[in-house]
């Protein structure tokens, strides 16, 4: 079993889409370790504020299979793939980590570069996996988060009720 961490973001119909993602991930992978939900401004474009979180789970699936599952969940959230990198999203799920592996081929980029670039990824990841080490940097996510500074990337915890599950 591999420990996987996935970021979830939405700035279109945010509540519905975050709940959809959590429900589908639970149905596919079982109990999830979930961060709090954070709100942040979009980076690289003008648009509505995002809800973001990170979840962790264990799976026997390969990284490629996990990515296919994530794309299927995005499709359920009516995600469009129009090629515009920085734009509003109904649902954006990114495979951040797959155990301690470093993979850079066939469309797989693990660990995701965004971990070190964006507060809305690193903050929630440090919350639920602070003692884990970045597979390339060799430092814990808590250490990386404590030193992260980008005044244009504030994140705020928002009250949010996730779909309930007896197994969490």
From TrEMBL:
Q: Name one GO molecular function term.
A: 2-amino-4-hydroxy-6-hydroxymethyldihydropteridine diphosphokinase activity
EC main class here is transferase
Pfam families given in the database record: HPPK
Enzyme Commission number = 2.7.6.3
Q: Does the keyword Kinase apply?
A: yes
What region holds the 7,8-dihydro-6-hydroxymethylpterin-pyrophosphokinase domain? 5-129
Pathway named in the protein's UniProt entry: Cofactor biosynthesis; tetrahydrofolate biosynthesis; 2-amino-4-hydroxy-6-hydroxymethyl-7,8-dihydropteridine diphosphate from 7,8-dihydroneopterin triphosphate: step 4/4
Protein's name according to its UniProt entry: 2-amino-4-hydroxy-6-hydroxymethyldihydropteridine diphosphokinase
Which species does this protein come from?
Candidatus Kentrum sp. FW
């Amino acid at each position: 079993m591999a420990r996987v961490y996935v970021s979830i973001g939405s700035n279109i119909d945010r509540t519905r889409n975050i709940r959809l993602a959590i429900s589908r991930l639970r149905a596919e992978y079982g109990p999830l370790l979930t961060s709090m939900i954070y709100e942040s401004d979009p980076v690289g474009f003008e648009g509505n504020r995002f809800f973001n979180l990170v979840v962790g789970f264990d799976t026997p699936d390969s990284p490629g299979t996990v990515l296919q599952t994530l794309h299927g969940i995005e499709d359920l959230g009516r995600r469009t793939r129009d090629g515009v990198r920085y734009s509003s999203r109904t649902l954006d799920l990114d495979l951040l980590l797959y155990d301690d592996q470093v993979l850079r081929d066939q469309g797989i980029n693990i660990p995701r570069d965004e971990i070190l670039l964006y507060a809305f990824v690193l903050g929630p990841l440090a919350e639920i996996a602070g003692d884990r080490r970045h597979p390339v940097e060799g430092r814990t996510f808590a250490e990386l988060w404590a030193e992260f500074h980008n005044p244009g990337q504030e994140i705020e915890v928002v009250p949010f009720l996730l779909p309930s599950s007896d197994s969490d």
